[in-house]
Amino acid sequence: MDVSGLEWGITIAITCAVLLFDVIIIARNPHEPSMRECTIAFVIYMAAAAVFGIWTIGYHGTDYGIDFYTGFIVEKSLSVDNLFVFIVLMSALKVPRKYQQEALMVGIILALIFRGIFIALGYQLVENFSWVFYVFGAFLVYTAINLVRSYRKHEEEHPEDSRIVKFAQQHLNVGDKWQGLKLFYRENGVRFASPMLVVIIALGATDLLFALDSIPAIFGITQEPYLVFTANVFALMGLRQLYFLIGGLLQRLVYLSLGLAFILAWIGAKLFIHALYKSGVLDWEVPTLLSLAVILVTLAVTAVASLAKDKKDREKDPAAA
After folding, report:
1. CB 99 within 8 A of CB 243
2. In this predicted structure, what is the pLDDT of residue 63?
3. For residue 246, what is the DSSP state?
4. Which DSSP symbol is given to 160?
5. d(CA 103, CA 181)
6. Which of 172, 212, 231, 237 has the fewest other C-beta atoms within 10 Å?
7. Which of these, 275, 196, 237, 251, lies nearest to 108 by C-alpha position?
8. Does residue 262 contact residue 103 with C-beta atoms inside 8 Å?
9. Mean pLDDT of all residues in the chain?
10. What is the pLDDT of residue 312?
11. Residues facing 191 on adjacent strands
12. Domains in the chain: how many in total?
């Protein structure tokens, strides 16, 4: 894929401009967004992703456009699963709804930074060492197995109990006043760290773990750094609005982790086949269009089965629902 320096420059500049606009707007008026506000913003972001895919098809070719759409759907799916962890984290650390937008915005910026670093490292690895596809594939299969185990054991996420968060709470003089993105404040001559600082540390640690799953998955779809980067950018854009739109719905998607486990296992197997293809053992590899179909069908089945089970559970026990 031939991507000019101008394309890279325009893409990064627009990404930074959108993030800066969001930061300025949110910092000036911290509030809990309305459903209308979230819906409009989310639709705009999704439309932008669709238009970018069409532009990729027209300018770089159909295959690259399909690669982008497939990578975008995979990254968006993983991001939706990550939203559940964010919800647990916000609740456990008692973040006021008024300031959750700011916390999420910082989390998204940190996610972009971490993923940018991992994309650069991942690209250097796949370009210079073909065996790294085996490592990425094994890691995704291992992650898929862990997702299934967690589901079977009904393990709950507790990101607020991570060692990094506990260390910050124990070694920082954390006060009890929320002051938006002001991370330190003074009271009676004593300097306190805002609770928001602990939230940002927790989000950063969570983002780092998410990137470890996300980047091998997208490299299983395409090894083009431009498509890997843009798929991640568009997947993260609109995530803040989605947090407020489907917060309650996420808890009803009981089979989401199983669906994602199957998708990660599929991409892991695809990476193994790609590694064998690169080494000359096989003379074919899994078409991206087939992967796109498998991913879409898996997500559809997961959503339908989850909502059906949720409806059945509510009918059995209306009081609990």
Report:
1. no
2. 92
3. S
4. G
5. 8
6. 212
7. 237
8. no
9. 83
10. 83
11. 186
12. 1
Q: At what angle do helices 62-92 and 225-236 cross, to 10 degrees?
A: 40
CB 214 within 8 A of CB 78: yes
Whether the CB-CB separation of 177 and 192 falls below 8 Å is answered with: yes
150-180 core/surface letters (b: 16 or more CB in 10 A; e: else): eeeeeeebebbebeebeebbeebeebeebee
Q: Give me the domain span that covers residue 179.
A: 5-316
d(CA 160, CA 233): 26
193 bridge partner residues: 174, 184
Q: In this structure, what DSSP letter does residue 172 have?
A: S
**pLDDT band at residue 226 under the 50/70/90 scheme:** very high
Q: How confident is the model at residue 159 (pLDDT cuts 50, 70, 90)?
A: low
Q: What is the pLDDT of residues 92-105, one digit of tens each?
A: 778 888 788 888 88
- Both structure tokens of 217: 């998955």
Give the burial class of 226: count Cβ atoms within 10 A of its Cβ; 0-12 exposed, 13-18 middle, 19 or more buried.
buried
Give the model's pLDDT for residue 279. Answer: 80
Identify residue 282 by its one-letter amino acid code.
Answer: L
Selection from 101, 98, 109, 99 nearest residue 19 by Cα: 109
Cβ atoms of 184 and 201 closer than 8 Å? no
Residue with tokens 């991507």: 3
Answer yes or no: are the C-beta atoms of 183 and 194 closer than 8 Å.
yes
Of 107, 317, 196, the closest CA to residue 309 belongs to 317
- What is the pLDDT, as a whole number, of residue 196? 84
Tell me the two tokens of residue 303: 């959503």
Phi, psi angles (nearest 5°) of residue 185: -150, 160
Q: Look at the alpha carbons of 18, 19, 24, 28 in this order and tell me if their dihedral is positive or negative.
A: positive
CB neighbourhood size of 22 (10 A): 18
More confident residue, 108 or 31: 108
Going 159 to 118 to 22 to 175, the CA torsion angle's sign is: positive
Amino acid at residue number 270: K
What is the C-alpha to C-alpha distance for residues 196 and 130, in angstroms, rounded to an integer?
43
Residue 321, domain member (yes or no):
no
